[in-house]
Amino acid sequence: MNYPNGIKKDFINIKTYGNRGMNLEEDLNDSNKFYLNSNIASIYKKPTPITINKVDYKSRKNAVIKEAHFIVPSTTDYNGIYKGKYIDFEAKETKSLTSFPLSNIHSHQIEHLKRIFNMGGIGFIIVRFTRLNKTYLLFIEDLLKFINDNFRASIPLSYFNDKGIIIKEGLNPRLDYLKIIDNYIEGR
């Protein structure tokens, strides 16, 4: 095919890489933006609390942070409100084909989600198995049950298949995890 300016393209040799460069956080941010713009939910990525130690002030507009450190361990990645319910969750990715290492979630994050649940909110983790192209939602109750009933250092994929719920990918929203929350609210 000939494009303007004499550029030729051979469509047989063009490679496509679906979702190339998209990661879980980008997918969730896009989904949350869709939810917000559609007046469905207000869910945001929490900023990581830091203290700035050194700044290079080339000009007021071009200040560059040169050194900073974390103030306290942050809780979870996302929180917000949906249908009058407080939602709080952590998002993680793993390259493993068989399990999700529990070391990827800090104990203070698990305790935070447990408190959210005990106070009537909805807490969960979203885990993407990147090499399997599968994304699961696992409610805090099921995460705690696994931790309490097992002495493993990782959650096997079979547990996600049994207790977790696959989040279907789409266009808008990219990851419709609120559909799963709807079923959860109805069943409560």
Report what the structure shows.
The structure is a single chain. The chain has about 190 residues and is of the alpha+beta class. It has a single domain, classed as Trna Endonuclease, Chain: A, domain 1, CATH 3.40.1350.10. The chain has five helices and ten strands, in the order αββββββαββαβαβα. The strands form three sheets. The chain has a six-stranded mixed sheet with strand order 1-4-5-7-8-10, with helices on both faces. Strands 2-3 form a two-stranded antiparallel sheet. Strand 2 and strand 3 (about 65-70) form a beta hairpin.
Q: How would you summarize the topology of this molecule?
A:
Blueprint: H1 24-37, E1 42-45, E2 50-57, E3 63-70, E4 78-82, E5 85-94, E6 99-101, H2 107-118, E7 122-129, E8 134-139, H3 140-149, E9 154-156, H4 157-163, E10 165-166, H5 178-187
Parallel strand pairs: 5-7
Antiparallel strand pairs: 1-4, 2-3, 4-5, 6-9, 7-8, 8-10
The major pleated sheet works out as:
6 strands, mixed
CATH architecture, by name, is: 3-Layer(aba) Sandwich
How confident is the prediction overall: mean pLDDT? 86
Beta-strand portion reads 25-35%
